[in-house]
């Protein structure tokens, strides 16, 4: 597609529209295991139940500690932590398996071992923010 746009003399803005999302998604997966991500706590608590999940890179992990702070650390496993105002510390909510698929810009998170949630990485900025869009569960034939 990009080669076609270049050959046809497409404007630079159109080229960037097609190229940048892939670059940003690559940045997301490159930074995933070394970045602390912040997720806005909701009425559901630390784990997402909605269709969209906004992640933001934590620039200062000590200054962002409020009762609404939820951290996601994608290490060997996804570790979800929330701020506990009573103790003044981050406490672990859980640890989850999360296989990634760079080719399809997606990941699955096993909050429940029997029913993982699948997410597609939405358009991101230069790697500082990302939106995970929940995909519908695939029905197995049978």
List keywords for this structure.
142 residues, alpha+beta, Lipocalin, 9-stranded antiparallel β-sheet, 9 strands, 18% helix, 35% strand, globular, DUF4426 domain-containing protein
Q: Number of folding domains?
A: 1
CA gyration radius, whole angstroms: 18 Å
CATH hierarchy class name: Mainly Beta
Q: H/E order of the elements?
A: HHEEEEEEEEE
Approximately how much beta-strand content do the residues carry?
Answer: 25-35%
Can you list the strand order of the major beta sheet? 5-4-3-1-2-9-8-7-6
Shape: globular
**Which regions contain 5 or more consecutive residues with pLDDT less than 50?**
1-21
Average pLDDT, all residues: 74
**Number of helical segments?**
2
Number of strands: 9
Write the CATH architecture name.
Beta Barrel
Strand pairing plus helix content: what structural class?
A: alpha+beta
From the 3D structure, determine the CATH topology.
Lipocalin
| Helix proportion | 10-25%
Q: Main sheet, how many strands, which sense, barrel?
A: 9 strands, antiparallel
Whole-Å distance between the termini?
37 Å
Give an overview in words.
With 142 residues, the chain is α+β, with helices and mostly antiparallel strands. It has one domain: Lipocalin (Beta Barrel). It contains 2 helices and 9 strands, in the order H-H-E-E-E-E-E-E-E-E-E. Strands 5-4-3-1-2-9-8-7-6 form a 9-stranded antiparallel β-sheet, covered by helices on one side. Strand 3 (69-74) and strand 4 form a beta hairpin. The longest helix has 20 residues, at 12-31. The chain is globular, with a radius of gyration of 18 Å. Mean pLDDT is 74; it is low at 1-21. This is DUF4426 domain-containing protein.
């Amino acid at each position: 597609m990009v080669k076609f746009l270049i050959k046809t003399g497409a404007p630079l803005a159109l080229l960037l529209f097609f190229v940048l999302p892939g670059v940003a998604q690559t940045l997301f997966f490159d930074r995933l295991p070394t970045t602390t991500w912040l997720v806005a706590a909701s009425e559901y608590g630390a784990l997402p139940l909605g269709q969209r999940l906004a992640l933001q890179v934590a620039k200062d992990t000590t200054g962002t500690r409020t009762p609404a702070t939820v951290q996601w650390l994608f290490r060997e496993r996804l570790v979800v932590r929330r701020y506990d105002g009573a103790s003044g510390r981050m406490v672990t909510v859980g640890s989850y398996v999360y296989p990634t698929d760079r080719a399809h810009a997606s990941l699955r998170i096993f909050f429940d071992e029997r029913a993982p949630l699948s997410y597609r990485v939405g358009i991101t900025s230069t790697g500082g923010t990302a939106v995970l869009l929940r995909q519908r569960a695939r029905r197995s034939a049978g």
